[in-house]
Structure to design on (204 residues):
């Protein structure tokens, strides 16, 4: 009975979140995102591989990250200040809706990383109990918007690697139920570089 109630409440929460984020207005968000262009590009595709591509990312995930930068649940010296400068929660959702409406970036996999990166992404690594990335982020890296699991397809490999290392060290700790921290702590630097190099070439 308890399990059933938990599932019901979780489903309602996801539906509620999806409806809330869907209310963002991409046209309003485009104007509000003017200050984001310097780092994330005019079309949501960053020119610096240390910064994430935002184009085509799920609106729910983007809004969640901005809210957590605003409250410092996710810590980044630049983004904490930028997120706090957004006038309202409503504006957060407009910005998220704008970036979600843009065509997603496409990238190129590192050919030296593809073979082993594919195995890690799709099947995990049983010897060290690394779960398959595809189980949450999808076989093509499309993510799961209802659960706010991010799209990974086309993301910069350098950014992916840096975030995995941040989860591993605990520097980044805004993952639900420590899912990413538990996975990343089982990964070696080599594992991270290989899976990140593969992810960069995924196409949703």
């Amino acid at each position: 009975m308890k399990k059933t109630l938990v599932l019901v409440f979780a489903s309602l929460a996801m539906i509620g979140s999806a409806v809330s984020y869907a209310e963002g207005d991409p046209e309003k968000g485009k104007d509000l995102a003017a200050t984001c262009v310097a780092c994330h590009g005019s079309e949501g595709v960053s020119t610096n591989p240390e910064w994430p591509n935002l184009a085509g990312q799920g609106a729910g995930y983007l809004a969640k990250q901005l809210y957590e930068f605003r409250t410092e649940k996710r810590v980044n010296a630049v983004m904490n200040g930028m997120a706090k400068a957004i006038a309202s929660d409503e504006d957060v959702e407009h910005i998220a809706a704008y970036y979600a409406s843009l065509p997603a970036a496409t990238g190129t996999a590192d050919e030296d990383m593809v073979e082993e990166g594919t195995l890690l992404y799709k099947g995990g690594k049983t010897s060290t109990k690394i779960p398959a990335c595809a189980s949450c982020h999808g076989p093509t890296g499309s993510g799961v918007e209802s659960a706010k699991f991010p799209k990974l397809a086309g993301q910069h490999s350098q950014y992916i690697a840096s975030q995995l290392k941040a989860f591993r060290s605990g520097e980044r700790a805004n993952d639900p139920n420590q899912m990413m921290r538990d996975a990343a702590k089982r990964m070696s630097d080599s594992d991270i570089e290989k899976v990140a190099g593969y992810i960069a070439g995924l196409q949703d």
In short: The mean pLDDT is 91. The radius of gyration is 17 Å. Residues 2-22 form the longest helix (21 residues). The chain has two domains: 2-101, 111-199.
